[in-house]
């Protein structure tokens, strides 16, 4: 299962304590054996876990045949209230696993501070473009940069970095004893490559044009109105409404993938022998899932289905039109370089071509895997 377990520590008590009480607690912990400390932390967790939790309206409860529970928090990626919903849910249910709508390619946002994230989200430069193309190929890389432009537009309008609810989930999971943290989204390069493969050449051009000229103002009220559908996905759906295949790859397929990962996380727990339990004794697990509100209906729809994500992880071969476009793009770039060299003169060209940086770039260009 794709995910990254995160070491967790005990949550601090809700009530304030004096210095003397803290010292007494420290003395007690020093006198405990590892088994006793384990048992104490487990009991603290079970005492704080609410049998009938008071949850926000944005939470959907799902169950498995084994009695495991999944509390699915539907969020808007730029919403302050969504952050509070995530915190409240995790504190109420004291989960065994927290699953978020992120993959390993976006996990860095979990540990960045708000100021750094704002700067990163607003800046779309040549280095980011080159990295996206290197990871995903030209077409998928360009599409990724255009979607980042949409996100940067929202960030600029709201002054709020994306993914706040995921960072809150990461922090709160670390306060719950024995809580694991999993990444539940399909790797973004696969999503973009499958999305690009689903479009014709002219559909790609039309979509790119719409993304390039996105500039409508967005208010915080608009974001909160989008609690019933994630803002970024709503903006995308408005632009890709005429491309059902694109909607399938970006939204519907990820609904299936997220449902699969949540079901994988919702497995019965084998109770540790340190608790005095019988060998192989199990108990139902509790999972909190944090996803964009737009994915909640799809996850519910697929929850009771037999899911197989093998096909969703494959990348179709490029179409003939895509191959022709890539060849034409490479030829155009080489032609422009050649014309520029002709205009600058032989001496200048030789001087430029002798530079290691230019030689390295030309080598990469001629060997680029589109």
TrEMBL record:
Signal peptide (from-to): none
Source superkingdom: Eukaryota
Positions in coiled-coil regions: none
Pfam families assigned to the protein according to its UniProt record, in alphabetical order: TraB_PrgY_gumN
Name of the protein described by the UniProt record: TraB domain containing
């Amino acid at each position: 299962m794709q995910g990254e377990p995160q070491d967790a520590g005990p949550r601090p008590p809700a009530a304030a304590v004096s210095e003397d009480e803290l010292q007494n607690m420290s003395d007690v912990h020093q006198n405990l054996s590892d088994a006793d400390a384990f048992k104490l932390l487990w009991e603290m967790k079970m005492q704080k876990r609410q049998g009938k939790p008071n949850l926000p309206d944005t939470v959907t409860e799902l169950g498995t045949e084994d009695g495991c529970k999944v509390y699915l928090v539907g969020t808007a990626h730029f919403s302050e209230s969504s952050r509070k919903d995530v915190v409240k849910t995790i504190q109420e249910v004291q989960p065994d696993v927290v699953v978020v709508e992120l993959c390993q390619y976006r996990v860095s946002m979990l540990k960045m501070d708000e100021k750094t994230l704002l700067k990163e989200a607003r800046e779309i430069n040549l280095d980011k473009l080159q990295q996206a193309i290197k990871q995903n190929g030209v077409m998928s890389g360009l599409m990724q940069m255009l979607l980042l432009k949409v996100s940067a537009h929202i960030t600029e309008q709201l002054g709020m970095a994306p993914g706040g609810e995921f960072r809150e989930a990461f922090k709160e999971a670390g306060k719950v004893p024995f809580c694991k943290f999993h990444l539940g989204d399909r790797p973004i390069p696969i999503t973009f490559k499958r999305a690009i493969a689903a479009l014709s050449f002219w559909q790609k051009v039309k979509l790119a044009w719409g993304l390039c000229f996105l500039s409508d103002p967005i208010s915080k009220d608009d974001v909160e109105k989008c609690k019933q559908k994630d803002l970024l996905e709503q903006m995308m759906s408005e632009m890709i409404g005429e491309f059902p295949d694109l909607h399938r790859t970006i939204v519907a397929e990820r609904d299936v993938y997220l449902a699969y990962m949540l079901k994988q996380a919702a497995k019965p727990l084998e109770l540790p022998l340190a608790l005095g339990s019988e060998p192989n004794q199990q108990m139902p697990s509790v999972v909190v899932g944090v996803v964009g509100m737009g994915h909640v209906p799809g996850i519910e729809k697929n929850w009771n289905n037999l899911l197989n994500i093998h096909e969703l992880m494959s990348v179709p071969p490029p179409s003939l039109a895509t191959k022709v476009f890539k060849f034409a793009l490479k030829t155009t770039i080489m032609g422009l370089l050649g014309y520029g060299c002709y205009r600058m003169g032989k001496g200048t060209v030789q001087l430029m071509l002798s530079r290691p940086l230019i030689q390295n770039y030309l080598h990469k260009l001629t060997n680029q895997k589109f």
